Amino acid sequence: MSTTVEAVRPERVRSWTRRTGPGVAVAGAGAAAAMVINGWVPALSALTMAVLLGVLVGGALPESAADGLQWATRKFLRVGVVLLGLQLSVGEVLRLGPGMLAVVLVTVLAGFAGTLVLGRLVGVPKGLALMVATGFSICGASAIVAMDSVARSRKEDVATGVTLVTIYGSAAIVVVPFLGTHVFGLSRESLGMWAGLSVHEVAQVVAAASPAGAAAVGTAVIVKLTRVVLLAPMVAGMGLVERRGGVHAEGKRPPVVPLFVVGFLVMLALRSAGVVPGPVLAGAKDVSTVLLAAAMFGLGSAVRVKELVRTGRRGLVLGALSTLLVGTVALTALTLIPR
Length: 339
Hints:
Its main location: membrane. This is Putative sulfate exporter family transporter. Keywords: Cell membrane, Membrane, Transmembrane, Transmembrane helix. It is found in: Cell membrane. The chain has helices at residues 2-40, 46-57, 66-84, 90-94, 98-122, 126-151, 155-183, 188-198, 202-209, 214-229, 231-244, 259-273, 278-301, 305-336. By secondary structure, it is mainly alpha-helical. The chain has one domain (22-336). Helix 1 (2-40) crosses helix 13 (278-301), helix 6 packs across helix 7 and helix 7 runs parallel beside helix 9. It is globular and about 65 Å long. Mean pLDDT is 84; it is low at 4-8.
């Protein structure tokens, strides 16, 4: 009996490798290409480049890569999001002070809820409105795909959301420092805070705050990562909503709190406790980026451009309105809430 079991296990491993290996390798290659581009142009984050590369080459990939790409999208995403929890400690968040924490909370909640309302007014699909609300109010592409794990939107809605994050986040790199300095007269510190509150991807935040100096960049990144911390409760909350709404098409209820969200919180606790060595933190950040980029490439490869074009115009309008909403709420909260 034991001999039979021992013989079956290696065969299962070989079968799994044959079925998923090609797609996982393609996802890895896509992630590597995205990171090379990010090295050339740091303002273009590896995650958004990965999904765009996936969209571009998806139609040309062999059918044998499909299973592996789906596997990479699901599994790599979850591990990558878990490792994101090591990028910030509770102490760093608390050092912002209660006033600034209130500003972050107001910006995220108002941006999220307001974008959902705007999506209804613009007439975009509910799934796309949710993806835009998540990406623009919390933390860009990684938040979008994390939210999709409980909301199960169409692949086209997810990819469109990531594309809009790229477009409007890239525009913010120029617009935010110009408006902050020449129109609103913000101090360097306030400009960093505004960039951290209103720009979508971490790389874009760094680029937007850099004209104000290194101190402003540091402030912007901490504020931005504080928004990332809110990813866990937002995804958990949507999981509860989806469970009450019934089963998904595949006949399963989404989890109340996805396991990877629990893992994210555990990593946040470990970082806060100071038990993770510095070299491990640096390595985990790189591994998280690679895994998330591979997941994004897999996501993009499943998208068909015709579907993107079909909803593109209204999506662009929603992205513009959401950008204005988040930026306005953030600036207003910075002005009115004592820090």
